[in-house]
Amino acid sequence: MAFNDDSFIREVNEELRSDQMKGAWRRFGRYVIAIAVLIVVGTAGKVAFDYWDDNRSSGTGDQFLAAMKLADENKSDEALAALATLEKEGHGAYPVLARMRAASVRAQKGDNAAAISDFEAIGKDQSVPEAVRDAARMRAGWLLIENGTYEQVSGAVEDMAIPANAFRHSAREALGLAAYKAGKMGQARQWYQAIADDAASPRNIANRAQIMLDNITASGKAPAAQG
Predict the structure, then answer these.
(1) What's the CA gap between 107 and 175, in Å, rounded?
(2) pLDDT by residue (tens digit) across 8-17?
(3) Angle, nearest 10°, between helix axes 21-53 and 5-16?
(4) Which ranges does the record mark as transmembrane (predicted)?
(5) What is the distance between the terminal CA atoms of the chain, rounded to a whole angstrom?
(6) By the 8 A CB rule, do 180 and 209 touch?
(7) What is the DSSP letter of 225?
(8) pLDDT tens digit string along 129-161?
(9) Which residue from 104, 181, 189, 185 is spatially nearest to 148, judged by alpha carbons?
(10) Beta-carbon neighbour count of residue 68 at 10 Å?
(11) pTM, whole model, 2 decimals?
């Protein structure tokens, strides 16, 4: 996705400051989500890699890498078949990693309902390490922004939006976007303000949060926070 960041932000500001909030979301929502979800994918990828690295001696490592290559080449059906075999026959960390990757492949194919279901199932599986469960729940939450309701996104990620959770920044942004998309401007402001107030928020997330706070204030659809 190629576009000029400065001109994009200017267009977003101009559009969002009008009264046509639904039109603004339709026009720019997918781009906002795409930019933000890269953070989630990157974090989840690191968690998955660390988990894989601890179990790299498994003889199924080459099979997993081959399945990932198929996925990267958009050979989705072949990749899913290979990953299904690893889920059943793999050793160590590979069955869990295969489940995560298979859910991602389904999302790439556009089968968002199946991907969400897969990620949610991993997120509830107590046999899976907590960090991987949280990564799966975050992926489900981001998919639900475009394919579910604010309440569904909240159910998936809100309990990760707490100070002690490593995914709190992404969880708060997902909740803010879901609330904004649903027209719940008061709740959107609450989540974006939580990002702005957290000194540990990554700069790119904090910058996006401030842009959204400015736009919400300019729209007049939610009261400004009281200092």
Answers:
(1) 20
(2) 445 544 544 4
(3) 130
(4) 28-49
(5) 38
(6) no
(7) P
(8) 898 999 999 999 999 999 999 999 999 999 999
(9) 181
(10) 18
(11) 0.72
